[in-house]
Amino acid sequence: VQTCALPISRTSELFAYLKYENHEPDARRALARRRVLEDALDAALVSERSGRVIGSGLGVTHSYVVFALDRVARSIDLVREVTAKVGLHRTPSSIEFCDAPLAAAV
User: Fold this and answer.
1) Dihedral sign (CA 15, 45, 86, 27)
2) pLDDT in tens, 33-91
3) H or E segment at 42?
4) How many CB atoms lie under 10 A from the CB of residue 76?
5) Is the CB of residue 70 less than 8 Å from the CB of residue 13?
6) Per-residue pLDDT tens for 93-105?
């Protein structure tokens, strides 16, 4: 994944994404699972005023949920809590930042 060190926003939010392994052979089920996850993540982030889900992707072996985050530390905690609730904690996953300095620090 290529990162960018240039500011993307004027409102100081940070952009990140959750990447997780997708073991579902049926694309429709994989998409449905990701949508449930997206909705749960967005609801948690919005309720805490920590961020929003702004996009997503479905690849051959991985799925992605993209965020705009305001309160980064709280947002990461929320993502971990939600992924555990939906059973994703048993699946290899990571949170990646789209900003070069943060990507290098994580």
Assistant:
1) negative
2) 899 999 999 999 999 999 999 999 988 899 999 999 998 899 999 999 999 998 887 88
3) helix 27-47
4) 18
5) yes
6) 899 998 755 555 5
Return the HEC string of 76-103: HHHHHHHHHHCCHHHCCEEEEECEHHHH
Burial class of 49 by CB neighbour count within 10 A (0 to 12, 13 to 18, 19+): exposed
Counting DSSP H helices and E strands in the chain, the numbers are 3, 4
Distances (CA, A) of 38 to 45, 55, 100: 10, 9, 25
Which two structure tokens, joined as six digits, stand for 103? 């990507």
Q: Which amino acid is at 7?
A: P
Residue 52, burial from CB neighbour count under 10 angstroms (0-12, 13-18, 19+):
middle
Bridge-partner residues for 39, per DSSP?
none
25-36 residues labelled b (16+ CB within 10 A) or e (exposed): eeeeebeebbee
